[in-house]
Amino acid sequence: MALTLYGYWRSSAAYRLRIALNLKDVAYTQKPVNLKDGVQRSEAHRDIHPQGFVPALADDDGVLIQSPAILEWIEETWPEPALLPATPRERALVRAYGAVIGCDIHPVQNLRILNYIRAEHGQDNDGVTAWCQRWIMDGFAALERMAARDALPGSYLCGEAPSLADIYLVPQAYNARRFGVDMSAYPRLMAADATAREHPAFIAAEPERQPDAPEDGH
Amino acid sequence: MALTLYGYWRSSAAYRLRIALNLKDVAYTQKPVNLKDGVQRSEAHRDIHPQGFVPALADDDGVLIQSPAILEWIEETWPEPALLPATPRERALVRAYGAVIGCDIHPVQNLRILNYIRAEHGQDNDGVTAWCQRWIMDGFAALERMAARDALPGSYLCGEAPSLADIYLVPQAYNARRFGVDMSAYPRLMAADATAREHPAFIAAEPERQPDAPEDGH
């Protein structure tokens, strides 16, 4: 099955899919969509992704959208190595880590939202940074509290091997550093992030290593 | 297994869980958390829900948070009637409908976000309404386009029976009406919403029927 990933080097949700496909050792071709050009809002792109976003993942049968849905599809299609634990309760825990990031941190600071608060609320760069930091810090504080209470033992966020939780954490921690968030307030997250970032599947998925990453990193 | 749902009558995410539990015919006790009082931000509540949100679902083994994770847990724990189709591709489609709402519509207009744009961006009621309408309309336009392209046949959003997609749609459509969004622009969503709202499991989950709903509906 030939897979095509429509993404963008710095898209947090595309980064998740790259990690998951790498962990499963599934090959894919990248079709970068330059979010800086606004091409994602074109009718042609909306025929691929009705929201005008990335990522989308296409195979011979059609196009899938929404990284939470695609991650579950990847897990169901290539079960090994498992990205979710065996019991429903542990699976719910791991998915909750993902949802804190995937629902309550990342979408709130999506490009369209930042464009809106600049245009309609008169926010400048400082206002945008404060906005992003606020939602990252709120979410990370909750995740750190979850990690203290509920974590499954191991050096990854939820166990001895990478899980869906790490797949969400690493791209969000990358964004957090980019927005100047002090990660030392979240020692458990920082440790899990450091562990995961040494894994070859995570390394190969890093934004700066993608074909559309600019050479100067900006 | 005794289940306790920490919710709020008007919480969209709690509304999802009520529908799902009703569809599975699983009994639960409600513990309302009055979001208007701010009690959700207390340390006591954060011991239940580290984000200071609702909903949370507790059983004898502990507390689960994040409605996307809890819905999957409900589906895995009580498989019948199924809320997801049988094939991975169809499951990904249904989950994508859920994620458009659960990630890109609902969290962006969460109470904490609305409080922030009032306090920090100087937005008044009109500004808040414009904000909510914008993200609902963006998301519903995408969902309507998905429903035209990819829908599984049937009078529900993704088939002949209620699925996860309807569980996300109905509470979001309720919110859309509350914020004055013109639903006639989304005929497929409106038809699916109307079908689902005639189902007893959806009726029993309606905000106004919950124990903490005020008698005057506000």
From TrEMBL, chains A, B:
Entry superkingdom: Bacteria
Enzyme class: isomerase
Assigned keywords, A-Z: Isomerase
The keyword Cell division belongs to this UniProt entry's keyword annotation: no
GST N-terminal domain ranges (all copies): 1-82
NCBIfam families: maiA
Protein name: Maleylacetoacetate isomerase
Source organism of the structure: Hyphobacterium marinum
Encoding gene (name): maiA
